[in-house]
């Protein structure tokens, strides 16, 4: 692992790091904020998965998470959204290929060689982080935005022993039921929709996966709400499954980091209450 | 004036606006954050002047000012740092021409036609803002970063009746005494250094200008500190003049928005105490 940059910020260190990933076969870049802490202390961790077109940099620059992470003593990790490189398969559209990994392990050619973001986020990056940062891996939470909200929900649902807390900002709640999801999962996984269910929060809940609770914020002026995000499907799935979800429609807010940053401190406080209990 | 964009954020409206400036002869873009307020209320205003290479967008995206402005009920205005346009005189370097207006009215050809940021910031933009936003122009504060810290200090010192509060992040405190200043003021104003003194915070203080008090934060790991910023000259000028300045060296912090955002809420609270007194 190599350090790309470190900047002192909000009484801690905001770093950017790169390493050669075996999961994706490419260099991968991610950011980590570590609040100041006692020399031997291990801090709880909050993972943040980003949305379409983003890298680690969007939330690192615009997310306004550092003040709250410093206050609560939480390490904040922001991975990239796909493998990167000039010689990788890609698609001209913003919603498939680079910047659009959808947190799946692709099985379709030519994507299956590098687009293995599930293994990267679930296995490889946690092991790397545990080796290099003062993280208490017994206290992990996960959140994310849009495609990354989908990632947070599905990874959280599939790994209930790993994550004590799961939240999301304007998540894609059911790739089975929206154009972004149909394109991405169809392209990466192929036409058999039974294979998609492991990557669909509502289907995972329907198939028996559970969370102890859940916090979701969604802007009601989000232009993607009705066609792509479909928050109502998650409300129904949680209600049917008895998951005590707090799903808040925020009046006037859109899909941007102006929305995310507004509710970031709330989410960090919510995770802190569960990670430090 | 035309609205470029508005986004709801932190219980207010973050807008970006453009207008044709008579001062610069070009279109100019700026951002305004207006917290929610009572229908007839007029809110105090904090001006933020940006540094070299920046537009309004840097602080608007990375400045982390909205939560504190919403808390204190303060309107936050971020202008651009120079005129813009393909047919303007420019310089290849980052520290002269576009993105580097230095908040002066140029008198040297070819700069004197468009590079009139002093008139723009001191006269034209305040009049426009007063017409279009719910601002209480009797309660204005000013701050800024680096070249914009220089702008905030010099504009504040020259206009003591307009500004109740002046602060700065890592300001260029004396263009007369650093390479950035010598290049910019020499280029825009010509070789007669007597004319530069109206654009040099330390010289203005030496020549009799005063502030009721002053807050400055400066990172001690800032790579520009010793050659360009020279905070010590401001410390000495304030001491000699009896200005009760709070000039804080912040250990480990650099020149970036990771530094600015860390102390932004502090500055806004400091201005609020003076604007709402």
Characteristics:
9 strands; homodimer; 24% strand; globular; alpha/beta; Rossmann fold; nine-stranded mixed β-sheet; 277 residues
Molecular structure report:
The structure is a homodimer of 277-residue chains. With 277 residues, chain A is of the alpha/beta class. Chain A has a single domain, classed as Rossmann fold (3-Layer(aba) Sandwich), CATH 3.40.50. Chain A is built from 9 helices and 9 strands. The first copy, chain A, has helices at residues 56-62, 66-72, 117-132, 147-158, 179-189, 201-206, 225-229, 231-241, 257-275, and strands at residues 2-9, 12-20, 27-35, 43-49, 75-79, 135-144, 163-169, 214-219, 245-250. Chain A has a 9-stranded mixed sheet, sandwiched between helices. In chain A, helix 2 (66-72) packs parallel to helix 9 (257-275). Chain A is globular, with a radius of gyration of 17 Å. Chain A binds chain B through residues 7-11, 14, 61-62, 64, 66-67, 219, 221, 252-254, 256-259, 261-262, 265, and chain B through 7-11, 14, 61-62, 64, 66-67, 219, 221, 252-254, 256-259, 261-262, 265.
Q: Helices and strands in order, then pairings?
A:
Two copies of one chain form a homodimer.
Chain A: E1 2-9, E2 12-20, E3 27-35, E4 43-49, H1 56-62, H2 66-72, E5 75-79, H3 117-132, E6 135-144, H4 147-158, E7 163-169, H5 179-189, H6 201-206, E8 214-219, H7 225-229, H8 231-241, E9 245-250, H9 257-275
Parallel strand pairs in A: 4-5, 4-6, 6-7, 7-8, 8-9
Antiparallel strand pairs in A: 1-2, 2-3, 3-5
Helix pairs in contact in A: 2-9
Secondary-structure element order of chain A, N to C: EEEEHHEHEHEHHEHHEH
Helix percentage of chain A: 25-40%
CATH homologous superfamily assignment of chain A: Alpha/Beta hydrolase fold, catalytic domain
Radius of gyration of chain A: 17 Å
The assembly state of the depicted protein chains is homodimer
> Which range does the strand content of chain A fall in?
15-25%
How would you state the average pLDDT of chain A, rounded? 97
- Under CATH at level 1, the class of chain A stands as Alpha Beta
CATH topology of chain A: Rossmann fold
> Largest protein interface?
A-B, 23 and 23 residues
Low-confidence stretches of chain A: none
Largest sheet of chain A: 9 strands, mixed
| Protein structure class of chain A | alpha/beta
What is the number of independent domains of chain A? 1
Overall spatial form of chain A:
globular
Strand order of the largest sheet of chain A: 1-2-3-5-4-6-7-8-9
């Amino acid at each position: 692992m190599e350090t790309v940059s470190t900047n002192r910020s909000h009484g801690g260190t905001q770093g950017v790091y790169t390493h050669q990933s075996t999961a994706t076969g490419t260099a991968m870049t991610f950011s980590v904020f570590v609040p100041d802490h006692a020399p031997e202390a291990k801090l709880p961790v909050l993972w943040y998965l980003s949305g379409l077109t983003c890298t680690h940099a969007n939330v690192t620059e615009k997310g306004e998470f550092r003040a709250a992470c410093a206050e609560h003593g939480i390490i904040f990790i922001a991975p990239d959204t796909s493998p990167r490189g000039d010689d990788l398969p890609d698609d001209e559209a913003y919603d498939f290929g680079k910047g659009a990994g959808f947190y799946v392990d692709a099985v379709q050619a030519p994507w299956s060689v590098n687009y293995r973001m599930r293994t990267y986020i679930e296995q490889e990056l946690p092991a790397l982080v545990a080796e290099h940062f003062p993280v208490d891996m017994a206290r992990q939470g996960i959140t994310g935005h849009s495609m990354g909200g989908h990632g947070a929900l599905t990874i959280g649902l599939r790994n209930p022993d790993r994550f004590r807390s799961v939240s999301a900002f304007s998540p894609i709640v059911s790739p089975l039921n929206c154009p972004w999801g149909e394109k991405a999962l169809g392209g990466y996984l192929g036409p058999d929709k039974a294979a998609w269910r492991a990557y669909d929060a509502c289907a995972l809940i329907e198939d028996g996966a559970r969370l102890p609770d859940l916090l979701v914020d969604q802007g009601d002026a989000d232009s993607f709400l009705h066609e792509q995000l479909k928050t109502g499907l998650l409300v129904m799935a949680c209600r049917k499954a008895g998951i005590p979800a707090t799903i808040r429609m925020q009046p006037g807010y859109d899909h941007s980091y102006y929305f995310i940053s507004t509710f970031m401190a709330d989410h960090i406080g919510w995770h802190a209450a569960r990670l430090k209990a």
